[in-house]
Amino acid sequence: MCIPCCFTISTSEVGVIEQWGKFKRLANPGLGFILCPMEQLVGRLSFRVQQIDVRVETKTLDNVFLTAVVSVQYQVLRENVFEAFYALTNPAQQITAHVYDVMRATLPTLELDAAFEAKEELATSVKNALSESFTSYGYQILQTLITDLDPDQRVKNAMNEINSSKRLKFAVAERAEGDKILQVKSAEAGAEALYLSGVGVSRQRKAIVDGLRASIVEFSGKTSAEPKDVMDLLLLTQYFDMVRDVGSAKHCRTTFVPGSKTSADQMRASLLQVDAATSK
Asked: CA-CA distance, 53 to 142, in Å (whole number)?
């Protein structure tokens, strides 16, 4: 005698019903009935997106071992529920095996730096390989993501040291370039200051000579001054300025000046003697 038995199927799921061990039908979401013991609810399949995280340890072309984490997102195809339920014994385990195969075949062909740059290409390779293998079994591979590439800690420390050394070298070069610019600008400023100082001294002396010439012309009543008269007056003026400066110096005690005649020649000789005395 067959006894009706009820069951429920959740939304986004489908039930698989067998009769005497043979596939009979699919049960849609909601309340359902089976005839015991003829029929039996043998399983359920979810249409929700599922994810498997696969950790793969392998080495790169430059013999660096790293651990890659691959996240595979897949979903059961509604039109292939029969294949999804009966074709594969353990879908998650078989997907993991394919991921291992693809990653261990691809990563050893790349160096460590290239592996980090080729994450998108690696993910695409895994997705293509899984799609070719599992679409016929009723599973759709939605996305594959390389969520982590983790080399040994010593390798990461070495990479950080290399990066730090490069940045330090760049900083030293920039600092040296800055010091060079400061020195060049300082030298240019010094040269410009000396040039302007020379221009100022030249203008000062020209103004003094012009003033002395005008004074000689005014006092002598002549229309022009002789160069010798101007030079004599200039030397006399500089002589008195020098005497004042030497006398006001802290370590100066005595100044020797011969003073019997006042000619220009004796004045020049006096200046030479004073210069010799102050230099001693």
From this structure: 14
For residue 149, count other CB atoms closer than 10 A to its CB: 17
Rounded to the nearest 5 degrees, what angle is found at the Cα of 7, between the Cα atoms of 21 and 80? 55
Is pLDDT above 80 for 219? Answer: no
- Name the CATH topology of 50-151: Tetrahydropterin Synthase; Chain A (3.30.479)
Strand order in the sheet with 13-19: 22-27, 13-19, 39-46
Coil vs helix vs strand at 260: coil
Averaged pLDDT score across all residues of the chain: 82
pTM of the model: 0.57
Is pLDDT at 279 greater than 70 in this prediction? no
Q: How far apart are CA 122 and CA 106, in angstroms?
A: 7
Is residue 139 packed enough to be buried (19+ CB in 10 Å), middle (13-18) or exposed (0-12)?
buried
212 near 230, Cβ under 8 Å? yes
In 10-124, which ranges are E strands? 13-19, 22-27, 30-36, 39-46, 50-59, 65-76
